[in-house]
Amino acid sequence: MHPIVKPALRRGWRDLKTVQFGMTPAHAIVLGPMDTATGGFLDLLDGTRGLPLLRDEGRRMGLPDGQVDGLVERLTRSGLLEDSTGGGPAAVALRKKRDVLDRLRPDLASLSLVSCEPGGAIQRLAARRSLRVQVRGAGRVGVVLASLLAGAGVGEVEVRDVGCVEPWDVAPGGLPADSIGERREDAARRAVRRAAPDRPPRTSSKKTEKGKEQAAGGLSLVILTPRDGLAVHAPDPAAAETLIASGMPHLYAGVVEGTGVVGPLVLPGDTGCAGCLDQGRVDRDPTWPRLVAQWRSGQPRGVPACDLALAAAVAGLAAGHALAFLDGTSPSRAGVRWEASVPGFDWHAKPVWPHPACPCGAAEKAKGERASEDGGPHETMAEQQSYAARLSGTWRAHV
Questions:
Q1: Lowest CB count within 10 Å: 80, 205, 218, 390, which one?
Q2: What CATH number has the domain bearing residue 235?
Q3: Which residues 6+ apart lie within 8 Å of 130 measured at CB?
Q4: Do 70 and 178 share a domain, yes or no?
Q5: Are residues 103 and 220 in the same domain?
Q6: Across the strands, what pairs with 158?
Q7: Closest CA to 116 of 78, 69, 72
């Protein structure tokens, strides 16, 4: 182990015996008591020395025997240490790609804030290179989102869509102006390639548990980013039937009129899906099916509204939720829709409860899970999100 105090956290002394690591409440940690000699030793934890050399340095500085090991153990327990040589074989391979790693260093530093174990951050970053995500929709939201995922190190990001690029599909970070008139999929593929720090690693085929042949880089997540805002405001349950049937996790994101939507992140059979969302709306508003039928049958008039800043915000939030899921950090966003409207851009969370009338089966499983825990129903939104987070953690292990 070559310990390094996480560079992402700035350090400051609160008083002569107390050190604060980090500035913001979300990640700051205060340690004490700590004498000035030990505080000076912290500068040596820069990832260039192993423990034997650090012990020698500690003795030269007058630190008592065992204090170096004690300090390293204390910092490790607090989640403040990284290991500049850890992370396993995939991390070692990534370190050899110096240009690629330099592109990803800000992401690595960010991951270190949510990964407690030394070497865990680069292990997660390296694991992204073996993942494959499919984005369905190459508009202002979809291509920007796909580019963000590729730029963050996801190995293969595939964008699916039909037709040719229109002038209103162009967006900073997405489709460029010189792609107007080209096939959307081709233009999106080039945009994603430009954003990626490296080419995706080769995949080989392997046998699944069911004995079927499949690529080793099989899909980990599908993100639905329709250019038609109706398809994200009122997603058609039939369009997601194959995703539900195959057990494929999927996330919705898009803009409808002046409202941005992210979610739900659907874990088939465990959290609320498009069918649950639809059934819940029918319960609250009996006229909902009539309205949706009219919206789907009518022809849109003119170019649909899609505020550029709102589209960028949706792409960013959706990319964040997707990466959290792919990294296995179990976001509490599963089964929740986040909405924000212009001009305020205030995000609001709306849970999508599993519905007993939906054939996805999430309601029945949720009922069983609640009954088997402590007998108390998950009635509040916070409890439902916590429950969904645990489910998301279980799902990540299967991806």
A1: 205
A2: 3.40.50.720
A3: 90, 155, 201, 216, 217
A4: no
A5: no
A6: 134
A7: 78
Pull the structure tokens for residue 132. 């494959």
Q: What is the pLDDT of residues 58-78, one digit of tens each?
A: 999 999 989 999 999 999 999
Tokens of 147: 């580019």
Same domain membership, residue 51 and residue 123: no
Report the distance separating Cα 296 and Cα 95, nearest Å.
Answer: 50
Do you find a cis peptide bond into 359, omega within 30 degrees of 0? Answer: no
Consecutive H or E run containing 24: none
Task: Retrieve residue 65's tokens.
Answer: 């025997």
Residue-range definition of the domain harbouring residue 66: 3-83
Among 97, 128, 159, give the residue marking a domain's end: 128
E-assigned strand segments in the chain: 3-5, 11-15, 18-21, 29-31, 81-83, 132-136, 156-160, 205-207, 213-215, 219-224, 250-256, 259-266, 336-341, 348-351
Query: Using one digit for the tens of pLDDT, what is the confidence trace for 277-321?
Result: 999 999 999 999 999 999 999 777 789 999 999 999 999 999 999
Query: Which amino acid is located at 230 in the chain?
Result: L
Q: Assess whether 75 and 99 both reside in one domain.
A: no
CATH label of the domain that carries residue 25? 3.90.930.60
- The label of the residue with tokens 């990803």 reads 104
Confidence grade of residue 368 (pLDDT, cut at 50, 70, 90): low
